[in-house]
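Supplementary Note 2. Why include the ligand at all?

Several targets in our set were suspected to adopt different conformations when bound, so apo predictions alone were not considered sufficient. For every target with a known small-molecule partner we therefore ran a joint prediction. The input for zinc ion is given below.
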Amino acid sequence: MTRISRLLSALLLSTSLIACAPRTEPARDATSEISAVSPIMTPGPWTGCFLPEPPPGSCGEAWGRSDSLCDPDRFLNHAAFAFAPDAPPPGFPLSAPLPVQWQIFIREDGTGDVSDEVLEERLAQVNRLFAPAGFTLATAGVNRHERPELATCRVKVTPGLVTDPNYPVCGDGAPYQLSHDPERNINAYIVDLVGPTAFALDPCIFPPGDERDGIYINRSVFEGSDKAVLAHELGHYFGLLHTFHTWRWNEPGENPVCEDADNDFVEDTLPQRSYLELRDVDCDNPPTTCPGSDQPDLLTNIMQYSACLTAENGTFTPGQLRRMQWKLATERPGLLPGS
Ligand SMILES: [Zn+2]
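The joint prediction is reproduced in token form.
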């Protein structure tokens, strides 16, 4: 999928394993960069956001468990991303919530369901976090499938993700074959996910309406405390990169993300390391992982991997909210009221 371009973020998504790097430079100075980059979010034909082919070093190191796996973040084409405009797009706040189609795949032994009550409880938290963006979500359907052969999604990222337009993002199990109009609905797949805890697809990865589009969540996410996993995946789905994303992963230096002024194309999230490996953190006194920054890291930002993050304290920055608005308006217009 060259067009696959979009998927990554998603996949990348949540995936967990991105190695991160600290920053070495003063806090980012993105202003000049921003003025030099035209907003990418203008409506137009879909072009995708993957590189034509996986770059050397994208596989077998940071993300996967073996040489056959790749870090999907590294497939993304920097040139396909840009900062969102300062003002919100027309029509926000939206007049109606965006429709969610829950797709729950029951195991062969009959277990694995998630109750309507739990779904609504989690969705209420999501809506609280997304309200400042001027849009919310509502359940349009709860679909329970007794198709055990589709109840396990084994995520494996290989170079085929970039080159195969029909790359099976769930391996042999393909729950998305039962998708519900993915251009006009957010399909949320609840399965046994092997690999990441969850993943979602950036709007630039698959062409509009691609059946694989959506968010994929391990059912265990609904059993434990709410760590804002759903909001995190929806962040990817609406075009957010991790706060520790870097386009300079193959450059020398310990912490290339620290020098990445437009690392996530959001002005108010300073480059910072991933906290996936930084567990001994004082949540009340966030450190600064990139030298030169005069601000603490965003330990409760929803797009960081942080043990300090919960659905209660999680936040998106104003810049992230603006980016999601524009991505929704220009790259997922089928979800908008009246579309
Ligand atoms: Zn993620």
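The pocket of zinc ion is lined by residues 13-14, 232, 236, 242 (CB under 6 Å). The chain has one domain: 3-243+312-334. Comparable summaries for the other entries are listed in the accompanying table.
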